[in-house]
Every structure is written in C-alpha cells, then in structure tokens.
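Exercise 3.2. Students should predict the tertiary structure of the chain below and write it as structure tokens, then compare their answer with the key that follows.

Predict this chain's 3D structure.
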Amino acid sequence: MSIPRPTLAELAATGEQLGLQVPAPLLAEYAQILEAVWQDYDRLEQLDTTPAPPAYPRGPGTLPEPAQNPYNAWYVRTDLHGAVSGPLAGKRVALKDNICLAGVPMMNGASTLRGYVPDLDATVATRVLDAGGQILGKAHCEFFCVSGSSHTNATGAVHNPRNPGHSTGGSSSGCAALIAAGEVDLAIGTDQGGSVRIPAAYSGIYGMKPTHGLIPYTGIMPIEMTLDHAGVMSANVADNALLLEALAGSDGLDPRQDRQVPVQRYTEALGKGLAGLRIGVVSEGFGHVNSEPDVDLAVRRAAALFAELGARVEEVSIPLHALGHAIWTPIAVEGTTQLLQGYNYGSNWKGLYVQSLMHAQQGWQRQAAAFPHDLKTCLLAGQFAHQRFAGQHYAKAQNAARQLRAAYDAQLAHYDLLLMPTVPLKAPRLPSAHASASDWVSRALEMNANTAPFDVTGHPAISIPCGLSQGLPVGLMLIAGDYQEATLYQAAHGFEQHIDWESLTS
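Answer key:
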C-alpha cells in the first residue's frame, strides 16, 4: 500500500509553517529527493502491527439506561470475567474510561471520541483479569481528564452519591461514584493533578496515587508523560492494597517505568498498627485562600487521633510546598497541549503506541469547538506559552521539580509520612450546564493545591476519609517516600480499624 504523496502546494504550505523559505524550483527538487523517504513509508505500511487478540473473550458491552445509572457514573456496562481463580476473585472492578478495553467503546469523557473502540487491552485491564477480577464496565470521567470536578463529561455531570447535586470530584469521577454507591468494590483511575485523590476525598473513599511508574500506564490515554499515574480506588484499605499488588510492576512497554520497578506484598502491611510511625503535619498544606475551616479542623483532629493511636505526630514546615502548584502548572498546561498536538503520544519515547487511538485523535482541531471551557483555556495557555517562550517555562518547572522533590525528601528523611488535607474544601455543588466560563473553569480547577505537587515529584500519596462536615466527607492525605506504599497502607489501615470516620463530625 502506498501513502499519498504531497503536492508541491502542500509542501510549500508545510515549509511556511516551519519558517522555511523554499523557492519553487528548489521545492520541486526537494519533492524528488523526498521520494526515497516516502518509499520507506510505503514499506512500513506492509508490516502488520495489529495487536494480538485479547486473552479473555468479551462483547462490546451495553450503554446503561438512565434508570440503571442514577449518578451518570457508567459509560458502558460489561460483564467480563478473567481467570477462574486468583487474588481478585469475586471482586467487582470498574475501569476509568480512558483505559483501553479491546472491543468496548471508550470516549474519555469527550464528545469528540464518541465511536472509538480500542483494539487492545491496557496492561492494567489484563492484570485485573489475570488475577480473577470481574470488570463490570467503564466509568465516566471528565472531558479528556482535565477537570478536578465532575461536571465536564460530554454526557452530563457525574453526581456524588453522598449528596446528589454535589461534585463527586474528578477526573476519575465515575469510579468514585460507583464505589461510594456500592456498585463496585474497586476501580482503576488515573491521576495527573489529583484525579484519583480528589474524587476519593469528595466521595469518602480511599484513593492511592502510587509512585510514578509503579503501575504501568500502557494502553491508557495519556495527558503528560511525566505526570501520568495510574491509581487505585476502593471502599476500604485492604481492597486497595490487594489491587495494587495485582497491578504493580514493570511490563516492558511503559517508558515511565524503570526496567525493574520494586514491588511488595502491600497487604502484609495491614494490621501492623501506628505505634512508632513518625508523621509530619505540613503547615503549608492548610490555610489556602479557599480552605474551608471545617476541613482544616477535621484533618487536624484526625492528626491528633493518629497520635492517640501511637504515632509520633509533629508540625513541620515545607515552604516550597506553597509553590508546588505553580511548578505543576506549566508542566500540565504546556505538556497537555503538546501531547494533544502529537495525537496523545508525540514522539521521542520508547513504549507501546496505541495507533488506533492516535488515528481517532487525528484532526481533533476540527472538533475543538465542542471542548469545554476548562480544556479550551488550558490549550490556549499552553499553546501561547510554548510558542511565545519556546517552552522555557515548561523546562524551568521541570528543573524546579527537583528542588520541590528535595524539599519533601528532606522531611521524609526524618518522618515516615507527611500529612495534610487532600483538598482544601468539601464537595461543592455542581455548576449549571449554562454556568459562565469563569464559574465553569473555577469549579474545575479550584481544589488541587495539595494534590498536584506530588504528581510533579512522583511521591506516593493516599487520600483517606477522616470525617464528615455538613454531611459531606473530608479527606486526609498521607505522603511517603518513593515505593513506600506499604507504609501508607499501614498508617491508613491503622486509622481505619480504630476510627469510624463517619462519626467524626465537625
């Protein structure tokens, strides 16, 4: 099969985009020179790179009726069984709808991806099935996973089962709602600015963002390679640790991972208690401009309960944490924009490319008018900054990330864990579909001052429910050093076993 050759007019237009000034006679000569390049493209077309069929047969799933989907949490329902036995046998699992499941539709919250059907299983999906888990379907998420609230999905808002009409948090919004409603035991989400931990906090569940690269991201639609984390969401700590055991480890296909990612039996940390654990309460994690006093109070009360249960709890200061969100912002907005320009994969990295997804994303600019306000403003900022400043702020932020990481590590040399509110506020009311652009974007991005810095540094962090205020959950975040997820589970489980968080009201 031969690829279409560019016309001289197309070559001239391409040259203008690149700032090349090529006179017509030379352009014709270039066209002849390039024929050898296009012939190699022709030869490449002859290779078959079709993914192998999935190991476990399945149908395409079904779109649930509204009566079966009261919180708008499901996109597609499936009943996919894997191995007949395994550590996840009997566990009901939902996949965030940016995770590829072969033969089952995926829209990643976006009207522009409606109709796309992946042709391969993400590594995490295969590992769930190999471990005996049952995948019940794909959970709605936010439009291209950009929002930290749950109002941007193209099909409408995802509602919080704790209080319908309120945000369930994003971008792993459907995952959180399904767990809070008891429809699934476990879910796999993704987190680039807090998108596992934010919905966990708003919805009163457990959300683990592990060390960057611990869970392979292969077959998941990315946002920014250095921020991409796959994470685990659950109704209790034991299930969370169990699922991480099934998912963690290198797959040889994800360049975010070291060749040999260290893994542990995380469930062995359960039941060890809190005695002897050293916890630093980060003062800069409290008192943000939009912090709600009852949230800060509930988290400080929970910190005191950790001390009552045997941990050594002390106040610490990490001044650079206050700038963590500012370090994250150029990476997120410019990285997202540039990756989208590269049809979600770009170039210059070794890993598995989902070619069918790249094809589905081709020409997305023709549909960009349908993007929500938060995505449009992100792309405007990212494109302008990248072009005007030649990516220098992205580069400076990546360099500053090492300083931020060092600041946390300096305290983690003295403490096993750091502690702060997951988010500074409780789940707010969902904005109207006709809200102003300012209200829409503000609600989408208002909550990640504490979560986003740890996507930049890659430290593992877990959100655990620690109380109720005005009937809405409050989330507490614990942070550890790289690959210390077992310590996070030890602390979270010790708190969970001794404290009924729903009785802790403020």
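Discussion points: The chain has a mean pLDDT of 96. The chain has two domains: 8-45, 66-503.
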